[in-house]
Write a sequence for this structure.
């Protein structure tokens, strides 16, 4: 029986730990090589386990990838879900930019995993993109449009605003090597994320404040 299909409560502590070791190793392999360029053998080697042992917990490479993508999307969408209609629009958008940059800093491998999947045409997550992600974005776009109607922020396209925040914040994960190389040793340390946050806040929020 595929261990992935068993209820978590039925797994022993050791089984749960083994699965986490495999998933951690797979994240490293997939984020570096993409789905097509990764193999069970590579994942087993990274996990320090035999291939049959890996296949005991996950029947196929696809099962490992699917588990990682489900976790990733849950984490990735959390900041957008917290967009609060009753909150101050400028504060809500500032918080969203900050949280997305924190994720770029803390989850660079997950970001590259997602980018690799998208670049391949999203064959394994298209239903999630067209379903859960689209529904969430449409819902938050309506909130943004409501703020515009109330004169709380300047009028713009809410979907492209969301896309722009994704693009600028995730750049610091997906192109981190380039960012650090261009900034150099003096500016390419951990402080680059705070510098990026201040810049992006000015870029987005100054443009969104109502014109008086």
């Amino acid at each position: 029986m595929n261990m992935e299909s068993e209820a978590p409560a039925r797994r022993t502590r050791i089984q749960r730990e083994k699965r986490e070791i495999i998933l951690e190793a797979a994240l490293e392999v997939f984020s570096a090589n993409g789905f097509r360029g990764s193999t069970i053998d590579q994942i087993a080697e990274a996990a320090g386990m035999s291939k049959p042992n890996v296949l005991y917990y996950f029947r196929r490479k696809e099962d490992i990838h699917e588990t990682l993508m489900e976790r990733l999307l849950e984490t990735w969408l959390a900041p957008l879900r917290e967009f609060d209609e009753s909150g101050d629009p400028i504060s809500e958008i500032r918080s969203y930019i900050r949280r997305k940059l924190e994720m770029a800093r803390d989850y660079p491998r997950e970001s590259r995993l997602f980018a690799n999947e998208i670049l391949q045409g999203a064959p394994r997550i298209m239903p999630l993109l067209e379903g859960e992600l689209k529904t969430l974005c449409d819902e938050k776009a309506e909130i943004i449009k409501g703020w515009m109607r109330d004169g709380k922020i300047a009028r713009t396209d809410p979907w492209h605003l969301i896309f722009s925040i994704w693009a600028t914040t995730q750049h610091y994960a997906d192109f981190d090597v380039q960012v650090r190389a261009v900034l150099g040793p003096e500016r390419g340390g951990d402080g680059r994320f705070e510098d990026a946050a201040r810049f992006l806040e000015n870029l987005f929020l100054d443009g969104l404040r109502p014109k008086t």
Remarks:
- The chain has ten helices and no strands.
- The two ends are 65 Å apart (CA to CA).
- Residues 69-208 form a domain with the Tetracycline Repressor; domain 2 fold (CATH 1.10.357.10).
